[in-house]
Amino acid sequence: MSETRRITRKKLLSIAGKFEPKKLSMRHLYLDKIRAYGFRQVYDIEGKEIELAELVKPEKSEIISSFYETRNLDEIIDLLDKRKTSITWDVPDNIHNRVIEELKNKYSRKRVEYHFSSFLLTWNVNDFNDNILQEIDQCQHQNFMKSTEPNHAYPDCECRT
Predict the structure, then answer these.
(1) Domain ranges of the chain
(2) What is the pLDDT of residues 32-41, one digit of tens each?
């Protein structure tokens, strides 16, 4: 985030979306399960745009779309299983296969109605003060450190393994 603020002139724009009920989002369940097995992705931060908006209030937030959709969970699990979504790409096979099996066992042949909303979020880059940036950057770093990688990308860090 510090780098984003450094190179951004005035405004930071992002399109973000959220599913409700979140507890039945296969994406969130997949991520929670791989984390439970100790795997952390490089970009795995608890600070995606929607969560970031809770830390730093956007200057403007506009709903772009909002709709309800009933989905067959087997279809979503199948997309995850075939690694058609980027959250699965760097997950080791043994963890991926275990998580997919768990999702299939629990959610196979189920349907759920989701409410999906997408937003255009606009921040004034100056609203990202140093304290907030430090908190976000520390969160990113801690999550990276929890990854299964033996060495991380911060060569000057005191906690380098």
Answers:
(1) 2-145
(2) 899 999 887 7
